Amino acid sequence: MKTALFCTKDPLKLLRTTGLCLSASMLLLMSGCATVGHEFPAGQISTINIGKTTQNDIYSTFGTPWRTGIEDGKKTWTYGNYEYSLFSDHSAEDLVIKFDNRKVVSAFVFNTTKRSK
Fold first, then answer.
1. All domains of the chain, ordered by start, with CATH?
2. What does pTM read for this prediction?
3. What are the tens digits of pLDDT across the range 49-77?
């Protein structure tokens, strides 16, 4: 007994099945978008104070960083949300925070492609 989708002697059924598969593939292709990272409360960036805000404060406000690393021997946390699309403008926001050895913010950079209102 053949149960495979394309094992049929009915050409009309094969044509319909192929058409459905092609339609589904085209729909996926046409959406053409991808997201990397995760959203973070960019409106809270003004609460960061160099030399005062601690790593715990940052975690409480922004949550788990999307990426962590080391730059010039200092711990860095990155919060990022990057949305790419084949058919419209992409948008990106990222916040990179550098901590000193006391786990206090020593520097940060925020970049966005979103226009302010």
1. 33-112 (3.30.1450)
2. 0.67
3. 999 999 999 999 999 999 999 999 999 99
